[in-house]
Specification:
Layout: H1 2-30, H2 33-37, H3 44-54, H4 60-72, H5 86-121, H6 126-156, H7 162-180
Helix pairs in contact: 5-6, 6-7
């Protein structure tokens, strides 16, 4: 049992490290944060000073180490957009986020478990088919919420970014397979 717990803790640490690496990498590809801080007519010397003060002129591995070290200490820096500590912004929004997560989880369990049990016990009944249809609509709405923003962002700019188009098409194909319950290859 102890080995199981230790293995799970190590797996959790690896997941957290992977998520941190992905967040750091995504931040690097979003754009230059200095461009968000300074105006367009800022002299190059001042831009260099801002970049240096943020540590963006250091090697990527040093930046990653600093990011992980500060994240462990719950120091996420200052928001470029709101000019406030990120931890303060998270603390302000955490109660509403937790409330939504808890209520939606409770409702999902309170409604989903009885529907699933009923459907398992009476597979061919009218209510079982209605419950299956409702659950498929629920899955469709969640997947649609993930697909639509990606699709809109690609179409809004007339982008032909291959990865965005491929992801959108893959998600649509997966959704069609799930909705029609036909095996797709």
């Amino acid at each position: 049992m102890l080995a199981f717990v230790i293995r799970r803790i190590l797996q959790s640490c690896m997941v957290l490290l992977t998520v941190a690496l992905l967040a750091f990498t995504m931040f690097r590809f979003v754009g230059d944060p200095v461009a968000q801080i300074v105006s367009l007519d800022t002299p190059a010397e001042e831009v260099r000073k801002v970049r240096e003060s943020l540590g963006l002129d250091d090697p990527v591995i040093v930046q990653m180490g600093r990011y992980l070290y500060k994240a462990v200490q719950m120091d996420f820096g200052i928001s470029y957009q709101f000019r406030q500590p990120v931890i303060q912004l998270l603390a302000e929004r955490a109660p509403a986020t937790l409330e939504l997560a808890l209520i939606s989880s409770f409702l999902s369990l309170a409604i989903g478990i009885p529907m699933g049990v009923y459907t398992a016990l009476r597979r061919d009944s009218l209510f079982a088919r209605v419950f299956q249809s409702i659950s498929l609509v629920g899955v469709r709405l969640r997947l649609s919420a993930m697909i639509d923003p990606i699709d809109r962002s690609a179409n809004a700019e007339g982008s032909s970014d291959v990865s965005t188009v491929a992801l959108t098409e893959w998600m649509r194909e997966s959704l069609n397979c799930a909705m029609t319950q036909v095996p797709c290859i």
